Amino acid sequence: MSSRQHILDTPIEYLKGVGPKRADKLKKELRIFTFGDLLRHYPFRYVDKSNLQKIGYIPANSGAVQLRGRLSNIHLIGEGRGRRLTATLRDETGSIELVWFKGIAYFQRSLQGGQEYLVYGKPNQFRSRLSITHPEMELMKAQETEGPKSYEDRLEPIYSTTEKLKTSGLDSRGIHRLLLALLEKINPKSDITENLPPKIRERYQLAERWQAMKNIHRPENENWIKAARYRLKFEEFFFIQVGLLQTKIRRHRTEGFVFEKITDVFTPFYNEKLPFELTGAQKRVLKEIRRDVLGGFQMNRLVQGDVGSGKTVVALMSMLMAIDNGFQACLMAPTEILAQQHFEGISKMLEGMGLRVSLLTGSIKGKKRRLLLELLAFGEIDILIGTHALIEDPVGFNNLGLAVIDEQHRFGVAQRAKLWKKNTLPPHVLVMTATPIPRTLAMTVYGDLDVSIIDELPPGRKPIKTMHYFESGRLKVFDMMRAEIEKGRQIYIVYPLINESEALSQYKDLMEGYESITRAFPQPQYQVSVVHGQMHTTDKDFEMQRFKEGDTHIMVATTVIEVGVDVPNATFMLIESAERFGLAQLHQLRGRVGRSKHQSYCVLMTGHKLSNEGKVRMETMVDSNDGFKIAEVDMKLRGPGDIEGTQQSGVLNLKIADIIKDQAILARARQAAGEVVEEDPDLKAEQHQTLKRYLEVARQQRSEWSKIS
Ligand code: ADP
Ligand code: MG
């Protein structure tokens, strides 16, 4: 590359009409530093100026309207705070009043009585008079008064801007004027260089970059707007996907252990111990894992499956593949309760096979811990199950071959990386998650992992019936609970524990709830357990155990039971103050029931006052058991920013593409990225050089961004 600066890198103050003061605001408010940044400030919609309304026919309670008429009666009226500028706009059907409280001096100077204006704004009705406060005004040019002639004049792009910019004359129109000046100053065709490989552009029928840039800001017609938007959205997704797929391919080239044999434990377990037939989806995923561990490269696979889809047994059988080949395996869970439960469940399933399974959590200390670590280092433990205590530095394996991470949304990327250092070659990594993350987002957030999906529940499961009750229906809900207990089933009652700072008051809620439950369900007829975060591990375990063994009928708990807990006989869940939970969490919680052949129920109890969003959440839960559908709604309600893992993925810096609305484009862009990366993973080919350079710049910007924010 020549050292001469590219014209699009020119500082924004050098553009005609900008100057130092406006430049300062553009930088602060919109992060526009250069010509190129301005060019990438895309409009978010277009107004068709030929779409005019007649003043006499504006409907009551109308939204924003676009009018054309002649201006007259420009007057300054009122005193003090009531001081305002008014004018009348008239067309052949009627008249409307225009009002300004701010910028009076400016408008008094610039508005021209007797001239035709294009006016945009939202009408208000006062008595029977219509008026518009602070309308957008555009003086019609002389040649336009017969109506805009060309498409270019007819379609006006609308840009996002800020209050501070508006006071400097940079409202949407002001920004558009700057863009028109910029497009005059540069030579789009030669200055806006193409960054997609020609093959991809042809195959996916994408407009040229300079054409897209020009038309997004100065459209020739509607078709060009479509083509331009498509091309620019595609481009944004494409770059993210090329980056992710490169990482993935690099991983695929990391040498890994080969698990060839399945004779000593895997096959006997499958033939003799497995208590049920695997579902088709479980078998498929196991085959995918088997292919990975035979390939000679390190596996990095995500297994996604809705709650209750049977991920644990897939994890277990993968661990058996490792053991068959002389390796150790570990399983890491996000909570002690879950680790404990995995330990018990897995130990039981492996009974009589001569395998050594151990549990390591934060509460295993002192001598016991030292002994365990010693055995582990000598290879005397085959499967180690635990919390994140597993990846702490003093924990050394003899020969770790596979690490399974359950419910990975609780683990950070850095923690995953620690695992890699536990053996001479990085162990294979299997990540299990039920976080119902929309497929398109998964493609991006987990784009560097291989993804397997368990999209089938074990047979005989009945969909959970979910109901929403207000406090006033509590007695009825209690009756339903008694009926379930009568049938021999068990019940969860969950209280919200959302953040630690509120822990105390929520703990009070829980204990009060517990007391009122014991009044409604008195001993000795009913046995009630309680589990919460402030309890000692041993007490927690004791209570969990009593519930698991069916000694208690009701388990009152905070969200500690959210993840993974498996008591198939529990068929009824009452979620208290359900409006305080997010959708993803509600779905996770509900997944604790519906784990047997019996019909299960979930009752969402809320106060009478519900926000609109709260209503949507309750309705969504009542309507659907499908984690993916729920995730889509969740993302629409909250935006992708709140979904874990999005921060690093770059989707939050998208300027024009929308991860929810543009899923089809995302899928195409990912496919295209795959074609490029498969053929030329390091982007060495001549035709990929611009693409490569562009990616490097984008990466740099992203890391600068992350330093700032
Ligand atoms: P999750 O995917 O939520 O981790 P689990 O692995 O805890 O689900 O499995 C849920 C329940 O389904 C467990 O009780 C498990 O024993 C049972 N299960 C798993 N696979 C099957 C199957 N193929 N047939 C019948 N039951 C199964
Ligand atoms: Mg699980």
Summarize the structure.
The protein is α/β, with parallel strands linked by helices.
Would you write up a description of this structure?
- The chain is of the alpha/beta class and 709 residues long.
- Helix content is 41%, strand content 17%.
- α9 (209-217) crosses α10 (222-252).
- The protein is globular.
- Mean pLDDT is 87; it is low at 145-151 and 705-709.
- The chain binds adenosine-5'-diphosphate and magnesium ion.
- The site of magnesium ion has 4 residues, from α13.
Question: Main traits of this protein?
Answer:
binds magnesium ion; Rossmann fold; 17% strand; binds adenosine-5'-diphosphate; alpha/beta; OB fold (Dihydrolipoamide Acetyltransferase, E2P)
